[in-house]
Amino acid sequence: MPRLKRVSRLAHVPGIGVERMGSAADAAHDPEMLRLENLDTDIMPPAVALQATKEAIGRDENNSYLPFLGQDELRKAAARRVSSVSGVDYDWRSQCIITAGGMSGILNCLLATLEPGDEVIVTDPTYAGIINRIRIAGGNVVFVPLVPSASGWRLDIAALEQAASSRTRMVVISPGMPTGHVLTHAEWEAVVRVVTQVDAWLLYDAAMERILYDGRKVLHPATYQGMKERTITVGAASKELRMIGWRVGWVVGPEEIMNDIGLVSIANVVCQTGISMAGVAAGLTAQDDGLQEALSVWQERRDVLLTELEGLPVIPPHGGWSLLVNAHELGMTAPVMVEKLFKDAKIAVTPMVGWGSNAAHYVRFVFSNEPKERLVGIGQKVRKALGLQ
Questions:
Q1: Is the residue at 4 inside a domain?
Q2: Residues 205, 130 contacting (CB under 8 angstroms)
Q3: Residues 284-305: pLDDT tens digits?
Q4: How far is it, in rounded angstroms, from Cα 205 to Cα 12?
Q5: How do 231-236 and 249-252 pair as beta strands?
Q6: 313, 334 in Cβ contact below 8 A?
Q7: For residue 240, which of 217, 220, 210 has the smallest C-alpha distance?
Q8: Residue 287 — φ and ψ, nearest 5°?
Q9: Do 369 and 41 meet the contact criterion of CB atoms below 8 Å apart?
Q10: Do 326 and 91 form a contact (C-beta atoms < 8 A)?
Q11: How do 314-315 and 119-124 pair as beta strands?
């Protein structure tokens, strides 16, 4: 056996924490365990997507590597989706490819745009999977704080402007994930200003862009002047369509970079899941994809959780499937808080270690996968387990 030496690209790439908590919760085999650790949802995908998937299984053309960049109907549907949200026209042939999930698409974009040592600005906290992919692609992560308050998170615009430099190659924005932060118009203007000044790419993780609460509206960065040429949008069927197991995503962006992203895509995962693409296309083109009904359920669950945890250092989310609690303000580390909740309250949540420089103070609660009836009473369980009663 060759002498084991860990490769340097993994030196600063830890796990994401979710895998450990998910495995622990699975191993407990306890139906009373509240599963708040993972971004799953119990709300079904669109019925037309399920039917289209069932029909696709029996067709030979879906049991193929081809076409490498995705089936035409899905590429058309994905390009139309991004165009309809952003108001910017995209050509499905030259500006859209299909990927094996959104995170695979993000890695493909990073590998196609970054040179080793290029700096990538991300918000803090941000999804550890994005941070890890930037490092695997050879980029240096530069964190810009999200500032917590009783009304939600806000981007530290002054810190963003200070973080930008001639070494900045990309800014990554991922609305809703994991904090529930959704950029305001003023915050987007600041991002656009910085990206333009330093001549960088904007990688926009759109997987949760329409999962918004309290009447908020989507603001797509490509809408802003001069940003169509700089914005690479990565979408996924996992969140808005609730099609997690299909493992289908898409990348839509300027024609000048799409060929390179396509080359990386073919070299990386080769192709997408053939039997999944027709179902996702059906979901994207459905007259009613069920999102509005799902939003009502998710917002109700969010509100129950906020009520239950009232008085604790909780930052309300404006979008997405999760909210954060500040363990540091409760006098403990996030891992200790997670362990107490798991052992003493039968609540599986995730410590945010590795999700940013400031993120390690926080614990993530996912509210998308547990009915509101099971969330009622969670506040008392949390306080008792943490010794706050």
A1: no
A2: yes
A3: 999 999 999 999 999 999 999 9
A4: 22
A5: antiparallel
A6: no
A7: 210
A8: -60, -35
A9: yes
A10: no
A11: unpaired
Sheet holding 140-149, edge to edge: 96-99, 249-252, 231-236, 201-205, 168-173, 119-124, 140-149, 152-155
From CA 45, how far away is CA 35, in angstroms rounded? Answer: 20
Which pLDDT band, with edges at 50, 70 and 90, does 1 fall under?
low
pLDDT tens profile 6-54: 888 888 888 888 999 999 999 999 999 999 999 999 999 999 999 999 9
CA-CA-CA-CA torsion sign (293, 44, 39, 344)? positive
Which residue, of 285, 307, 336, is where some domain finishes? Answer: 285
Asked whether residue 89 falls in the same domain as residue 236, the answer is: yes
Give the per-residue pLDDT at 6. Answer: 82
- Report field, pTM of the whole predicted structure over 0.90: yes
Whether omega before 178 lies within 30 degrees of 0, making that bond cis, reads yes
Question: 52 and 38: one domain?
Answer: no
Q: Residue 194: count other Cβ atoms within 10 Å of its Cβ.
A: 21
Sign of the torsion formed by the C-alpha atoms of 309, 313, 316 and 320: negative
CA atoms of 216 and 180, how far apart (whole Å)? 12
Q: Which residue has the tokens 């994905």?
A: 78
Residue with tokens 């969010």: 302
Q: Are both 255 and 181 inside the same structural domain?
A: yes
Q: Which of 269, 270, 289, 271 is nearest to 279 (CA)?
A: 289
Domain-terminating residue out of 262, 285, 308:
285
pLDDT of residue 101: 95
